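Tutorial handout. Part one gives the primary structure; part two gives the three-dimensional structure as tokens.
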Amino acid sequence: MQSLWQALHCLDEENAIAAMESAIRSGFLPAEQIRQLAVHAPRRLQDGIRRMVDNSGSGNETIVRLRLERAGFTVVAQGHVPGMGHQDLVVDDCVGLDVDGRAWHEGDNRFATDRDRDVQAEGLGRHSLRIRTAHIFRTWPHTLAVIERAVADARRDRERRRGRVLVGLDDPL
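Part two.
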């Protein structure tokens, strides 16, 4: 708890919130202790603290969520994909984002599972994007522009479909 308290005083808002959410997710500290820290956290963190969630899958997911919310989007962490688990973030209920690090895809067959989930999400009318760490920390302005475009395109597609989703392979387009 002392380490996180020190971090809150040294880190910028997005990294401080990412540290708090990661502490909850990893089981490092219980949510109640995080809430106690939040009450006494520096004032500059209060906006981010109000937007904290307890189901963020990683610090990078938290940072992307906070940036997208700051840009005016509605973002849901761990958006459900029926029969396939979840996408890391769902932006404006029309674009699913997976924030992937290389280590996540080593080992078991996560690569194939992720692609299957992308196909299922597309069939439900939710476009899918995958971003990696470099997209967050090296090329964020470009990444944000791509997400903005993807959301605009998805909204337009949704409006054109008028809510229709693909429910089976024999469903006519």
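Part three, for discussion. The chain has two domains: 1-54, 55-164. The helical segments are 2-10, 13-26, 31-39, 46-50, 59-70, 110-123, 133-137, 140-161.
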